[in-house]
C-alpha cells in the first residue's frame, strides 16, 4: 500500500509539472488577495460520475486541506443538513446563482463548489488503475465573483508489479478489491488546494503571492442569476 501511495503521488506530480507553464498565485488569483476571505462554506459536491457513493466519500476529504491552509471551514455535515431542511438537496440547484445568501445566513466570506469529474476503478486482469478527478471553485459571497478555480486529479497504478504473470494477476485483483478511494481523493485535494492563497490562520498569510503553480488558464467570468 505504501508503494501504491508513492506511485500515485509521483503520477500526480508528473502530470502537474511536466512541461507546463507556470504562474504566480498573485497573478492568477489577484482577488483572493484583495478580498481576503477568511471563512469558507463547503457545499455538497456535484457528482458527474456514475459512482453513486462518490459524493459521500469525497465529502469527507474536503475540509481538512482547507483548514490546513488556514481557513475556518463551516462543519460540512451541518451545512448539508441545513440545506436539506430548506429543500436544497443538490448543489446543482444553487450553482450559477448568487451566493450572497450564504453571507446573510452563515456569515461565510466564500463558498466552495466542487464537481467530481472522475471516480473510476479500471481492472483488466494483469493491470488496473484508479482515477480520482475533480474541479473546485471558490466564489465570493460579497462580490459573487470566482476568486479561485482549479482542477485536480490523481491516477493510481494498481498493477501487481511482478515479472510473474500469475502473481501479477493475483496482486492486481487484491489491490483492486482493497482500494479505498478516500486517501487518494484527500491526496489530490491537498495538491490542488495548495494552489489556493493561504488563509489568515496560516503563518504565510498574504506572503505567498510569488509562489508558483501550474497555469490552468484564467478564471472565466461566471454568469450569476
Would you give an account of this structure?
The protein is of the alpha/beta class and 225 residues long. The protein has a single domain (2-17, 24-200), classed as ABC-type transport auxiliary lipoprotein component (Rossmann fold), CATH 3.40.50.10610. The protein has nine helices and eight strands. Strands 2, 3, 4, 5, 6 and 7 form a six-stranded mixed β-sheet that branches. Helix 1 runs parallel beside helix 9. The longest helix is centred in the first third of the chain and has 16 residues, at 2-17. It starts with a helix and ends in an 11-residue tail after the last strand. Mean pLDDT is 79; it is low at 1-17, 123-127 and 160-179.
Helix share, percent: 25-40%
Distance between the termini: 47 Å
User: Radius of gyration over alpha carbons?
Assistant: 19 Å
CATH superfamily: ABC-type transport auxiliary lipoprotein component
Estimate the mean pLDDT confidence. Answer: 79
The tally of domains stands at: 1
State the shape: globular
Helices and strands in order:
Layout: H1 2-17, E1 22-24, H2 25-28, H3 30-35, E2 39-42, E3 46-47, H4 54-59, H5 63-68, E4 72-73, H6 76-85, H7 100-106, E5 110-123, E6 128-140, E7 146-157, H8 165-178, H9 181-193, E8 212-214
Parallel strand pairs: 2-4, 2-5, 3-5
Antiparallel strand pairs: 1-8, 5-6, 6-7
Amino acid at each position: 500500500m505504501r508503494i501504491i501511495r508513492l506511485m500515485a503521488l509521483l503520477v500526480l506530480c508528473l502530470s502537474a509539472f511536466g512541461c507546463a507553464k507556470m504562474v504566480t498565485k498573485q497573478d492568477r488569483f489577484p482577488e483572493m488577495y484583495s478580498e481576503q476571505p477568511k471563512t469558507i462554506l463547503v457545499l455538497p459536491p456535484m457528482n458527474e460520475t456514475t459512482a453513486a457513493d462518490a459524493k459521500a466519500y469525497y465529502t469527507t476529504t474536503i475540509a481538512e486541506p482547507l483548514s490546513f491552509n488556514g481557513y475556518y471551514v463551516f462543519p460540512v455535515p451541518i451545512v448539508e443538513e441545513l440545506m436539506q431542511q430548506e429543500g436544497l438537496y443538490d448543489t446543482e440547484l444553487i450553482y450559477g446563482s448568487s451566493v450572497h445568501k450564504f453571507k446573510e445566513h452563515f456569515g461565510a466570506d466564500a463558498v466552495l463548489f466542487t464537481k467530481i469529474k472522475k471516480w473510476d476503478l479500471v481492472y483488466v486482469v494483469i493491470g488496473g488503475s484508479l482515477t480520482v478527478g475533480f474541479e473546485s471553485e471558490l466564489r465570493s459571497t460579497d462580490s459573487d465573483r470566482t476568486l479561485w478555480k482549479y482542477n485536480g486529479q490523481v491516477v493510481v497504478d494498481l498493477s501487481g508489479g511482478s515479472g510473474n504473470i500469475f502473481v501479477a494477476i493475483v496482486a492486481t485483483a487484491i489491490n483492486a478489491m482493497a482500494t479505498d478511494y478516500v486517501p487518494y481523493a484527500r491526496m489530490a485535494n491537498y495538491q490542488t488546494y495548495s494552489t489556493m492563497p493561504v488563509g489568515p490562520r496560516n503563518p504565510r498569510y498574504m506572503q505567498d503571492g510569488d509562489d508558483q503553480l501550474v497555469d490552468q488558464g484564467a478564471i472565466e467570468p461566471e454568469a450569476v442569476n
